Amino acid sequence: MLKLMELNDENKKILIKELNERAEEVQGELVVNVTNILSEVRKDGDKALLNFTKEFDKVEIENLEVTDKEIEECFNKVEEKFIKALEEAKKNIEEYHEKQKTKGFLITKEKGVYLGQRVIPIERVGVYVPGGTAAYPSSVLMNVIPAKVAGVDEIIMVTPPDKQGGINPYIGVAAKIVGVDKIYKVGGAQAIGALAYGTETIQKVDKIVGPGNIFVAIAKKLVFGTVDIDMIAGPSEILIVADEKSNPRFVAADLMSQAEHDKLASSILVTTSKKLYEEVEKELELQVKELEREEIIRTSLKNFGRAIICNDIKECIDISNLVAPEHLELMVDNPMEYLGQVRNAGSVFLGRYCPEPIGDYFGGTNHVLPTNGTARFFSALSLDSFIKKSSFLYYSEEAILENGEKIITLANKEGLTAHANSVKVRLS
Amino acid sequence: MLKLMELNDENKKILIKELNERAEEVQGELVVNVTNILSEVRKDGDKALLNFTKEFDKVEIENLEVTDKEIEECFNKVEEKFIKALEEAKKNIEEYHEKQKTKGFLITKEKGVYLGQRVIPIERVGVYVPGGTAAYPSSVLMNVIPAKVAGVDEIIMVTPPDKQGGINPYIGVAAKIVGVDKIYKVGGAQAIGALAYGTETIQKVDKIVGPGNIFVAIAKKLVFGTVDIDMIAGPSEILIVADEKSNPRFVAADLMSQAEHDKLASSILVTTSKKLYEEVEKELELQVKELEREEIIRTSLKNFGRAIICNDIKECIDISNLVAPEHLELMVDNPMEYLGQVRNAGSVFLGRYCPEPIGDYFGGTNHVLPTNGTARFFSALSLDSFIKKSSFLYYSEEAILENGEKIITLANKEGLTAHANSVKVRLS
């Protein structure tokens, strides 16, 4: 099911071009619709939210805020086994993100100069969580835990109500477990508007994170600047580097775990063994029939499934660096030996027993990763996403007397005489 | 010249609204023009660059790349005093940014699990430096030094040629001093296109930083995603918190150092002393006459100069946190006592002898700061801007046997059976 590409420079270019072109152009009409929704929310607040909920979610809501009682009911609907697994995942994710904490610093100098940098959590964060079939409790963990660990004061979750006006019990349970402060039953572009501008019920936030459909994505782009947003997730990918000793069953299963996400997902096998490739092809056919999302997987592999045979592992990793995949699996012996060669990848899964879904749910690393080649310059969601750094500088009178003339020289050369003047007045 | 606003909740809202509204809407026509320039550069490469240079910069260039000989000539045109000041500034800026280095980490667990995060410099960075009256050597230092310290492999500078086809000697000298790898004589949207897509001469980069005019700003927005970009600088501001002991000469000079940037800049005095405000008003009139940019300063102060009298310093800082100014000066005794109350500010200048221009040129902190209230969630340009963080995760066979069922439970609840399958195949 994977399209075999011969290894040459021309094909490398084609591969990158085909992957990049997955990102769709946004429809102008959609942007107009979303703009209107946002401006109604800005103008009419809660009233607009309730109207849009009636229109789009086909349900009349009385209270936007989810009550403690509703959360209690969520727990009644969910199996103990699920809660236990979620709590253990939370522990692992917290442990990993705790390590991301950064400290400020202070430099002191003679003659009364000091300067430094402080690390300050963002005050209020909004987390969007989709409803329906895309209601992922793991997404609640991955977006909320780093904000919590970073020390954000208040975390507000928005999620669309179901047809009965309730919320998905798995989402409710996940939100309670990670300590979300407030949950509101509102989704779509209107929820993003509420978070960005505030309404009578929902307080304005400083940053919005979390995945959503095309309306949510456009709304996030439009409010960017008024608030900060996380990355807009593009089509995702897995690239597997596998040697001749790799188990084709594992390789096939892992390629499909990415392919099931959507029809634009890309699964790429880069291997030193033609034989492995052939066996993987057979395994794909065998396994795909047993999977619920067979049709999506087949379409995704047909469109964006690729296989490339290389001469050695280094050549495989060179291709991976070119693709800059969201997920990279290094299915080789001693994988740590090769990690230093990996320059561009969102998250790297090492060895033969570490399929990407361990990271999606449980391992501890974050599953919100740079997609569509942006791992060249973007990083996963992390504590960095929920803090800001603010610098400070102190000069004593003695210090400005000593250095003032140099600063005046530099300012004057740029024609900024009022800059120079602010130093001058202190020298006389 | 400052508009005095009484302290009340209504006025706080008005203040924020007036400041936010400074950000102008981008003209649709301009976006079309820039889109065309970008697509011609993408199609015709160097040829397009030379044509646009002829059209916009009114000069015919033969070689885009600046030669060693041209750089040597720059040094001949520049005073020794300037070079010395620049070198000392470079030392201070390096010292500060060295402290921003972050390390990766590794967590090891029993039963063969390890995970962690690596810090990897971005490979190739492009720095835009404006020409003409906005050719600021300090901007070269502030944009290039953090990239250098971060370990970026290659730093490429673009700057428009002057009417004789040369480059601004101060820019040339600054670029040499900080160790830019290559300099090309090309400006405007076409330069951004060259950096984003690459041409025969100019290699494609991964990230573009540096200020520019409206064409450059729009081009940066349009190529965002293909490459990363820094913040788009909006209208800037200074907020000065001053007590009754503050010197009105200093306060007035500092307010104007910001006001001279452009007519949208905002200078805000928040003080516990009505008397100080009145004296500052007199000083503004006295000093402004001596400054080259008198007209810009008068317009800027008239439009966006504000003064608010508060009851105590805490009240002053509350207003500052609301404004989230790019620059905050705390002109009080023992300023460090108040720093912990400052939640939202790009950079804080402490005490009576630390006007903001020390930070613009010399002190060591970065002068590329979040503008127009975005200090609520953005940080200054820093080492973080030139690195990415990549996670990794290893599970042994024993570890997946122990935890596999939990991961399967979580994946199945999300309806992602191919995710579950990638774990299942390893359990049997």
Automatic annotation (TrEMBL), chains A, B:
GO terms for biological process: L-histidine biosynthetic process. Zn(2+) binds at residues 258, 261, 360, 419. NAD(+) binds at residues 128, 190, 213. Transmembrane segments: none annotated. The active site is at 326 (proton acceptor), 327 (proton acceptor). HAMAP family: HisD. This is Histidinol dehydrogenase. It comes from Clostridium uliginosum. The lineage of its organism: Bacteria, Bacillati, Bacillota, Clostridia, Eubacteriales.
